[in-house]
Amino acid sequence: MPADDTVFSVLYDKFLFWSIIVGVLTFGWLFYAMARYRQNIVPDTTDVDHIVVGSFPVERHNTRIEVLFYVLPTLIVVWLVVLALSSNTAVWVIPDEDESFNMEVVGKQWFWEFNYNEELTWQDDPRETGIDVNWGQDLVVQFANSGATNISITMDGVSSDYGLDTGLGTLRLLSSIDRFTYSTVEVLDSSGEVLHTWQHIPVGHQLSTALGEHLVVPCDEEVVLSLFSLTSDYSELNSTYWGVQHSFWLPEWGVKEDLVPGLEGGTVMWFMADDPGTFDIRCAEYCGLDHSKMIGKVDVVSYFDEKTNQQILCDADTGVKKSDGVSS
Ligand SMILES: [Cu+2]
Question: How far is the CA of 215 from the centre of ligand 1 (A)?
């Protein structure tokens, strides 16, 4: 089920609220009039100037009600326009580059590529897994009572495994983090199941749905995506074929934007996710034979904020946004 607190669902609720009020008033009036003026009701004969069908009751008209007929709907329509425009503004004003997480999305036939303009260090929520990985000067893994028995460290595709001393509860490896290497630490149990994931995505790294990879974005931060459509053999770009139009769609947050071939600056969209989790990516523009395969996933993760030295934990249910996480 899509997130229920997007600007669009809030706008929907507001429109529904005012529609119900208008509906109750108009249908109430309708049914009242049907009952009051139904057939076989004997007209009030003491009323000299009674209503004649087909003629406007000039003497009996009520100026206040007639003014209300015009003023009230006008006010409601103006109010709905204000609501709709303010939601539009909330969506179309792109957040400041310094205060948001900026990256590129490239659509090709028929997959998505995600280019990182900023580094991202994240891990699963330690409150849920009972495991805390912290990689600064040393790699420190705290795993007491979590059932973890092994860790697997993958750097640029090369993996190495280490056994964990379950009696100790902590592992410290004398190895400082390499900020320029795509690194993943997986903490596993004895059956090889991954209990906890920590990852560092360096600047310039690319993830691709063609390789089965997910887009990974920080929670609780404005994520600004610059969107480009390119051909699959972009390096040998010939001037006769510029690729096709795609549309990057994140149904969870109701945001969607076209990717336009040949548009140098690209197009821009942004969103902010409160809850961690894995959500759908779709292409919403028919883009050729394998359009239907142009699907993917986006992982919303708790990330490590270098500025405040804190892990940003996202949890809309408990209202916990930030906590003293690991320190590096
Ligand atoms: Cu497409």
Answer: 16
β-strand partners of 201: 120
Gap from CA of 272 to ligand 1 centroid (Å): 23
Q: What is the pTM of this model?
A: 0.80
Length of the chain measured in residues: 328
Q: What is the CA radius of gyration of the chain?
A: 30
Structure tokens at 322: 């930030």
Report yes or no: 169 and 199 within 8 Å, Cβ to Cβ.
Answer: no
Yes or no: say if 95 and 222 are a contact pair by the CB < 8 Å rule.
yes
Tell me the residue type at 219.
Answer: C
pLDDT per residue as tens digits for the range 280-323: 999 999 999 999 999 999 999 988 887 777 788 876 544 333 33
> Separation of 230 CA from ligand 1 center, angstroms?
11
What confidence score (pLDDT) does residue 63 get?
85
Counting residues of the chain whose pLDDT is more than 90, the rounded percentage is 50
User: Three-state DSSP class for 65?
Assistant: helix
Q: Which residues pair with 197 in a beta bridge?
A: 186
The alpha carbon of 259 and the centre of ligand 1 are apart by a number of angstroms equal to 9
Domain boundaries, the chain: 7-92, 97-322
56 CA → ligand 1 middle, Å = 61
> What span, in angstroms and rounded, lies between the C-alpha atoms of 128 and 140?
18
What CA–CA distance (Å, rounded) separates 271 from 221? Answer: 8
Q: Using the mean position of ligand 1's atoms as its centre, give its distance from the Cα of residue 261 in Å.
A: 11
The H-assigned helical ranges of the chain are 7-36, 63-92, 126-129
Cα 280 to middle of ligand 1, angstroms: 14
Pick the CATH number of 97-322 from 3.30.200.20, 3.60.40.10, 2.60.40.420, 3.30.43.10: 2.60.40.420
With beta carbons less than 8 A apart as the criterion, state whether 268 and 211 touch. Answer: no
